[in-house]
TrEMBL record:
Classification via InterPro entries: AMIN_dom, MurNAc-LAA_cat, N-acetylmuramoyl_amidase_3
EC code(s) of this entry: 3.5.1.28
UniProt organism field: Terasakiella brassicae
UniProt key word DNA repair: no
Gene Ontology molecular functions: N-acetylmuramoyl-L-alanine amidase activity
Keywords, comma-separated and alphabetical: Hydrolase
Any one GO CC term of the record: outer membrane-bounded periplasmic space
Domain MurNAc-LAA: 234-388
Leading EC class: hydrolase
Reactions catalysed according to its record: Hydrolyzes the link between N-acetylmuramoyl residues and L-amino acid residues in certain cell-wall glycopeptides
The protein's name: N-acetylmuramoyl-L-alanine amidase
Stored PANTHER family: N-ACETYLMURAMOYL-L-ALANINE AMIDASE, N-ACETYLMURAMOYL-L-ALANINE AMIDASE AMIC
Superkingdom in the source lineage: Bacteria
Length: 400
């Protein structure tokens, strides 16, 4: 990663957007000169800028006022060594110039400056350059609009190896997936809390209580604030030889009075319109992080909900029913808390999997509870109890 002048990580001090007569200007102040690479994506229109790994001195929930063609801003770690910002555009834009300006006068920081001007759709598509998945092989070209190579190091990224389960394990393998992360913050709570921080906190607490039992090998899909593609989350579980996969989330709703946890299992038909809408939002995580989905193959497209997957689905549903009962003893749950939808992250054909909605960050009571370490500990204990019961049944069945 790039290092600052004092040997530490370069730090982003501020971000702002300004509207000028003929262009929209994006400015990011950073403590040191850093390399950058700019790409553009369509459907929807986005401008993506990659930097070496950065620190961020921005308040939680920070969202600068947008002007001109820009409508949204996200930032965070895209993969180890690479930080990313994603700018949403409400119309096609052209990058007029990008600059890295040194400190001058009263300004003590370096400034990354990018000017955007309106263009038409056909011109945007002609100039569009794709961003790639973090696991894409280095032999795949990564074209750029503009690149500044200060402190940039190129590294080969290995492709994902075919998953294989160990023939014999002394412990049950449980994979815990903390939803969202890095440049994909997930939902934002009523007080500004981000879903990605809530899910990581409870994933760590759940890992700790499971490891204390001595029965489980626990794998986290992420143990820091970093973006993980949906297909890689599933691949991590399969490479680990997972016996159970849990994906943790905390969404928002327009109706702020709705509160309570729920558990989802995979189905090609959603149990309700709300479940369908939730799955559609969650399945856009890669798009939100600035990934060009049109340039990648869908590793999950071959999976059909057929006879070969029926046993996995049945095991998932049995665990979900147990989980609902135990979670209901630790807090609120929704009416009909076991629900079904086509979540991409649940589509490993050979790993029983559930997605747990821990509560709604749009509800002040749920958000306050999920930010509480004490409440998260209660949830972790309830989930642990369900996992113990599930594997008790598995072990009993294996003895027959």
């Amino acid at each position: 990663m790039a290092l600052g002048q004092d040997g530490g990580m370069p730090v982003v001090q501020s971000v702002r957007v300004g509207q000028h007569p003929d262009h929209t200007r994006f400015v990011m102040e950073v403590s040191d000169n850093v390399g950058f690479k700019v790409t553009t994506l369509a459907e929807p229109y986005r401008v993506v800028v990659d930097f070496p790994e950065l620190g961020w001195q921005l308040p939680e929930g920070f969202n600068p006022r947008m002007y001109g063609a820009l409508s949204g801003f996200r930032y965070g770690l895209f993969k180890t060594g690479t930080s990313r910002i994603v700018l949403d555009a409400n119309a096609p834009v052209k990058i007029k110039q990008t600059l890295m300006l040194p400190p001058r006068g009263q300004v003590r920081n370096w400034r990354f400056v990018m000017d955007l001007v309106p263009t038409d759709h056909s011109s945007f598509m002609a100039l569009m350059k794709p961003a790639v998945y973090p696991d894409q092989v280095a032999s795949t070209p990564t074209p750029t609009v503009v690149e500044n190579r200060a402190h940039v190091q190129q590294a080969r990224v290995p492709a994902i190896l075919p998953p294989s389960k160990p023939a014999k394990k002394s412990k049950h393998v449980v994979v815990i997936d903390a939803g969202h992360g890095g440049v994909d913050p997930g939902a934002r709570g009523v007080s500004g809390a981000y879903e990605k921080h809530i899910t990581l906190a409870i994933a760590r607490q759940l890992r700790d209580v499971l490891q204390q039992t001595g029965r489980y090998k626990v794998v986290l899909t992420r143990d820091r604030d970093v973006f993980i593609p949906l297909r890689e989350r599933t691949a991590i579980a399969r490479r680990a030889g997972a016996d159970l996969f849990l994906s943790l989330h905390a969404d928002t709703l327009r109706d702020k009075s709705v509160r309570g946890a729920s558990v989802y299992t995979l189905s090609e038909r959603a149990s309700s319109k709300e479940a369908q809408a939730l799955a559609e939002r969650e399945n856009k995580a890669d798009l939100i992080a600035g990934v060009d989905l049109s340039s990648t193959t869908d590793d999950l497209s071959f999976i059909l909900l057929d006879m070969a997957q029926r046993d996995t689905k049945n095991q998932s549903s049995r665990f979900a029913e147990t989980l609902v009962k135990d979670i209901s003893l630790s807090g609120h749950v929704l009416r009909n808390p076991h629900r079904f939808a086509g979540f991409a992250v649940l589509k490993a054909p050979d790993v029983p999997a559930v997605l747990i909605e821990l509560g709604f960050l749009s509800n002040k009571h749920d958000e306050r509870a999920l930010r509480s370490k004490k409440h998260r500990a209660k949830l972790a204990e309830a989930i642990k109890t369900s996992i113990n019961r599930y594997f008790n049944r598995v072990e009993e069945a294996n003895r027959l």
